Amino acid sequence: MGKKKKSNKVKPQLLKGFKDYTPKEQIARERMLSTIRSVFEMRGFLPYRTAALESAETLLGSHYNEDSLAELFGFCGPEEVDMALRYEFTLSLARFVAGNPDLPLPFRGYQYGPVFRVDKPGPGRYREFTQCDIDIVGSANLLADSEIIATMVATLEALGIERFKVRFSSRRILNGLIEFAGIPAETGPDVMRVIDKLEKQGREAVLQELGPGRTDKSGDKIPGLNLGDSQINEIDRLLTIAGTETDNPLAAAEQLLGEMAESVAGIADLRQILSHLSNMRVSSDKFGIDLTIVRGLGYYTGPVFETNLLDLPEYGSIFSGGRYDNLVDRFLNRSIPAVGTSCGLDRLLAALIELERISLRPCTSDVLVTVMDRDKLPEYLRIVAELREAGIATEIFQGDTKNLTKQIKYGDKIGVQFAVIAGSDEFDKGLVTVKNLSAGREMAQQVENREEWLKAEEVQQTIERAQLVEFVLKNRG
Amino acid sequence: MGKKKKSNKVKPQLLKGFKDYTPKEQIARERMLSTIRSVFEMRGFLPYRTAALESAETLLGSHYNEDSLAELFGFCGPEEVDMALRYEFTLSLARFVAGNPDLPLPFRGYQYGPVFRVDKPGPGRYREFTQCDIDIVGSANLLADSEIIATMVATLEALGIERFKVRFSSRRILNGLIEFAGIPAETGPDVMRVIDKLEKQGREAVLQELGPGRTDKSGDKIPGLNLGDSQINEIDRLLTIAGTETDNPLAAAEQLLGEMAESVAGIADLRQILSHLSNMRVSSDKFGIDLTIVRGLGYYTGPVFETNLLDLPEYGSIFSGGRYDNLVDRFLNRSIPAVGTSCGLDRLLAALIELERISLRPCTSDVLVTVMDRDKLPEYLRIVAELREAGIATEIFQGDTKNLTKQIKYGDKIGVQFAVIAGSDEFDKGLVTVKNLSAGREMAQQVENREEWLKAEEVQQTIERAQLVEFVLKNRG
What we know:
Two copies of one chain form a homodimer. By secondary structure, chain A is α+β, with helices and mostly antiparallel strands.
């Protein structure tokens, strides 16, 4: 029986690629979300929320199959309907807008929450992660694209990040080139996907992949798009500009791509955005044109944005998006122009930690009231109530031990700032002892004689019971 | 081709039983969450977050099968692992605690987020809904149960609900009775499940279900537990007390159940909790003993709580929980005592709306800056920047129309408070017009002559451009 019981135990394991967040992490994530949401709301974006599960058609279009469903967390669910967890918000937003014809347009919305991807998990790369998106749906006005870029800048600044750059281009520039070179329109997305590798793989690799393909370092054969030499040369013209250090890439692009109407229109779009950003007084060192930006996703139609941290280039783009004027078409017999952007909360948190722009707090409580004498429980509970009424986050020790050292150790472990200590003696005299656990932890790292700092006034003080609230309010960090 | 294209369209539909939240709803939900989280943190609960997907074993134990998995949103996922969306937080919390032996105990945690159930959808009943949980894990101390109850009271009060009652009992009282009556321990959970129907079905129905079963109104046969008459009589003793109007149900219970050791212990537990709540100065009209409370879930072991809205009894319990001392056993070869409670955000929101304790705002923006003259865009954008810098949530009209009436109509639709209007004329004179759209909407409901209120000073005022920020700060709602 004992053996059988043991085999009934379930290992306390997470699914592969999933993660729990301890208070220390979750407190930081909540603070970040609060900052991000404040910036979004200050700039007129309204919160909305879509369902976490969607039909397979919504996420994959009408031509999905078992294989494409298995690339998501997809399954045949209740009522025999194929469904999957969302892997991003934009498709859900498109469905939401298409299904709510009364929604006033332009709709400026923000959404945050978990998305799910069956990626190979790695360091900092999880299968469930939190994204924050803003979108402006129902406007073809480039003021909207500019507002999105300006909000990206404002958000990162509000989070305390100083050295970053939002870089952007327009797909129209490349589309014009593709059309001019006589490359079939359906190959366009593949060309974008290959050029998207420029930063990581370099120009030679990209040119090879546009042509016959190449063999990578590990010996794997990467198939090419088999474009003709003249077609590849046309595309190379753009890469040449992109690779040139110039103060004015748009002028260079215009000179080279001037005969391609769609490219010229894309260049004009970017000039307009630059002008709006300047009028919005966004610092000019926080954004810039980069003609190599194309983004991997198929649905972008115009301006596309990426954001790099100057001190952590290895993070890649931490805030990305673009204009997607045809996405709502999946659901409606008409187009609704839209533009948006998305950032991953946890990658930003990792960056803030690495840049030392955030201090991780393990605890949101200010005070732990210890319990030395069970008979005095009414007194302890009165102290708790008083502190909470004054807006001081307070807990009473809930464990079963009466041992004060263990209670203090618990307070230290959870990271609370103060411990309140009182026995019959103190209560009789109208006194209470307050121990500054945070100060104690700091001093313990500095002094060698433990006995010494334990007695230090900064760490422990006996005060009038009536002064307790005032004392904590004055001394809390 | 046209036809084919049409068939490629995806209907913009949610899955059955799922829901999106528009800004109007989501703004209210965010405000509620903020209030709830403040109360939790003020009382020492720390935020944590567990994964939304769990292994089938974690949610269902080691003996799950295809059928029990299909009762959840369950499926065979990546790496051929059976998994499902969580249907509540408590099992995930138990896994989290079991898997994190370094977590300081007692752990006081809170979590909020979506849970998923394959229920039959109905009005206000969705398959994805947001729960808010608090738990104290690692304490057998009844101070913990009392803190949970006190926090339930504080949370509902902070949300503006006045007339509610947290009612509680202890499973130990009934366990003692079941043992005394010679009912096998494994039938205990079924007895609890039947007694849980008392409020809805009445005493006669419960007694029949404890015995041979009954036929309900629709003619459906409900099987009984086939307990013996003497066993049913023992249980009826408890129902008799519960049905008696008495100021002191615990004294009555003691008189009737005095010979059952476990019942007596349960009664003593409840007395202790009453004493703690009194010491915590929780208003005595906000809680009370109700010996009919048992809760349906199998894992409760001690005190169990429910909360009813006195003015909306049809809502059933809106905040429920209890002590579950053996749940972590699923994962560990030892017990960790725990107690917690849970509320559903959207049922609470529905109640707040019905009780008129919340005003729904459609918009978080204060000001819409209209664009009459594109050449003046730098001026409009300067106004936007100034307002935002002063902490006034502001957006500029992003649509493609120059028509002022349409822009104002848009502002009215999204529910923004002020519209700022300026043309070349105003800019030249250093003036700006501010239209109070909210006041306009209110007055439109009161006066008959539309022309009249359009001219009213309260609705529209032309002021000095330099006074704009001050004017909005002074007049915003």
